[in-house]
Design a protein that fits this description.
Layout (H helix, E strand, L loop, with lengths): L2 H12 L9 E8 L6 H18 L7 E8 L4 H13 L5 E3 L4 H14 L3 E2 L16 E2 L5 H15 L4 E6 L2 H16 L4 E7 L7 H10 L3 E5 L2 H13 L5 E4 L6 H7 L7 E4 L10 H12 L8 H19 L6 H9 L4 E2 L4 E5 L2 E4 L4 E5 L5 E2 L1
Length: 370
């Protein structure tokens, strides 16, 4: 064999854009696992699906190796993790990243390494508009959620409103969605308050919003900050309708609020995880029953499970020896794909995936009601 050809074959074998030679397909994730449990539950849902899939022979005879690193919601650490996944672990796709600032930090790496990011657990508008060639969303955007939230307030004829948002790209995205949709209906917030992403202190925001005695508060905040704000408001005797974006969804979050969480509204981008009339829900419940240490039956776990189904379907369409390039091509040709009651669709100019949104209410003991 010519020496030049040998070097070429060796380069192909070690190329991070190719599936590994030992019969595995490596999928990589950087996500907050050490904080509040939403990222953890998303990951557990995805792992459930990948484990079940591997037990049935994987994709074209190759098993899925799902590697996750904790990024502690730190953009710099997220970039380090991503480079490790690409250069050392040889992932052919990135999957299920979470938190708007951390995802935005790795967008240049996607372009540089021509690797797709599939189903980020964020509804950031920056991941939808403008179109990113290497980002394929599953969930609806926060703008979609804000529109539904404001429509619900209009139906209830609640007009004395306040907004709480985190002072970063995620919070400002939510703020813009709230304000623009209120303006479309001739509505406005009486007060807008923010808090610092790093310090996570909402005390000043509580004072500002409580002074206005709003009927409802639209909230774009992380789970811990949302919970702290609700508790402080209720201690002051303030019990407006609290409405939050879907980023707070986790079993731990709802249970942590206890009785104080009863009646709060939360946007959802997945179907009800207890509705067995939906095929993917019935499938997840069956898998949970056979799992050794099953995670809770939550919206976050369901979203992770559906995201893994999306990942697997794209890999099937990418052929026997998938790589990043084949995966990108397969994704852009996925039109109106039914993942078991969750329909997604992509094209060269549309990477939105799904636009499903609904409002739910938290009932007794943290149980979600529709």
């Amino acid at each position: 064999m010519p020496l030049r050809l040998s070097f070429f074959l060796l380069a192909c074998l070690i190329c991070p854009a190719l599936a590994s030679a030992d019969g595995k397909i490596v999928i990589g994730q950087s996500v907050e696992l050490s904080g509040q449990a939403t990222g953890k539950e998303n990951r557990e849902g995805a792992q459930l699906y990948f484990d079940a899939l591997n037990g049935q022979g994987g994709i074209h005879g190759k098993s899925i190796e799902f590697i996750s690193y904790d990024d502690k919601r730190d953009p710099a650490l997220t970039k380090e993790n991503t480079l490790k996944l690409i250069n050392e672990d040889h992932a052919i796709a990135l999957f299920g990243y979470r938190s708007t600032p951390t995802i935005e930090a790795i967008l240049p790496l996607l372009e540089k390494h021509a690797i797709p990011l599939i189903a980020p657990f964020s509804g950031a508008q920056s991941l939808h508009q403008p179109l990113h060639a290497h980002v394929f969303n599953l969930r609806a955007s926060y703008q979609d959620e804000a529109a539904k939230m404001v429509a619900s307030l209009a139906e209830l004829k609640l007009s004395k409103l306040a907004i709480l948002h985190q002072d970063d790209s995620f919070g400002k995205d939510g703020l813009n969605g709230f304000v623009s949709n209120l303006e479309k209906r001739g509505m406005r917030a009486a007060v807008i308050a923010k808090y610092d992403r790093k310090e996570m202190k909402v005390d000043a925001a509580v004072v500002s919003i409580a002074a206005a005695s709003p009927q409802a508060v639209l909230m774009a905040c992380t789970p811990a900050a949302c919970a702290d704000f609700i508790r402080q408001m209720q201690k002051l005797g303030q019990r407006p309708q609290f409405l939050m974006l879907s980023n707070v969804n986790s079993d731990d979050f709802f249970k942590s609020l206890g009785a104080e969480g009863r009646g709060i509204g939360v946007m959802q981008v997945m179907p009800y995880p207890r509705d067995i009339g939906i095929p993917v829900v019935k499938e997840l419940q069956k898998v949970l029953k056979s799992a050794k240490n099953p995670p809770p039956l939550s919206y976050a776990v369901l979203e992770g499970y559906v995201a893994a189904k999306l990942m697997a379907e794209a890999l099937r369409r990418a052929g026997n020896n998938p790589d990043s390039k084949k995966l990108l091509q397969a994704l852009e040709n996925m039109r109106n794909v039914d993942l078991g009651g969750v329909e997604v669709s992509y094209g060269p100019k549309d990477h939105d995936g799904s636009h499903f949104v609904e409002l739910t209410i938290v009932g007794k003991n943290g149980i979600i009601l529709r």
